[in-house]
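#structure-requests
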Amino acid sequence: MNIVIILLTLAMGVYFIAIVEGWAVHGRISLSRPALSALALFGRESLLVRTPDRLFFEAGPILLLVVGLLAMAVIPLAPGLIITDLATGALFLNAALAYVLVALIMAGWGPNGGYAMIGGWRFLGQFIAYAMLIVMPITAVAMRAESLSTTVIVTSQAQLWNVFYQPIGFVLFVLAAMALAWLPPLDLPNAPGDLAGGFEAEYTGVRLAVLRLARMVIILAMAGAIVTFYLGGWLGPWLPGWLWSIIKMLIVTTAMLTTGRLVPRVREANLLAAGWKLGIPLALANIFLVGVIALVVDI
């Protein structure tokens, strides 16, 4: 039953993401546009490039979708409403997200095209820079909860949400989440301005539909991780816990999809420099501060 409820929530969340993204791009809200766009993709011919690496070309989008579903499996919507409550759920989430890199390199290599390959390898370069900005904030969150279980991490925020306890970690994790889902202004792997679609340029029809669906699942999984680690998960007054989780996830998703479009795209060199020279030192400082506060104050 939990799996059915979470999958229905995931389906509604993906549709909501498609609506919000359409609004952010086109400036108007259309409830029917996502369905019509999906039907158009499924009705379009799936073209195959002349000399592809067929295994990578076909497996890349599917692997990306599997990664998103695995990440969602350890996100709790309410007490007991989770697909699998692992004792090492936060570690599992980080391990699953590492395969986003593998999927995008496969999708970039498979078409055997210049723009696609540059997009895949560009994602590799930036992922190395900000991967630590995912795992190190998770480390600080786990330090406070004294557990890697995502449900325990939520309950540890009963007195104070981690967004107030660890604001540095929150900012770093949100930025890393946006980069992981290649959202503007960190959409370097498929930057339309200079790569003409990047790694997804050669995908059409059903393959492109699967790739875009996988990206939306990744976005929703990252929003769920932000809510779980920093915004108290299901905790909140009056409303049922599962409803609080959904409301928070939708707010975070909307913010991720809209705010980044208000600033220019970040150059690849600047992103790498910021990740190595600024992001990692701040993440280390966040771990140190969380450790000191945990020794001094019991919250």
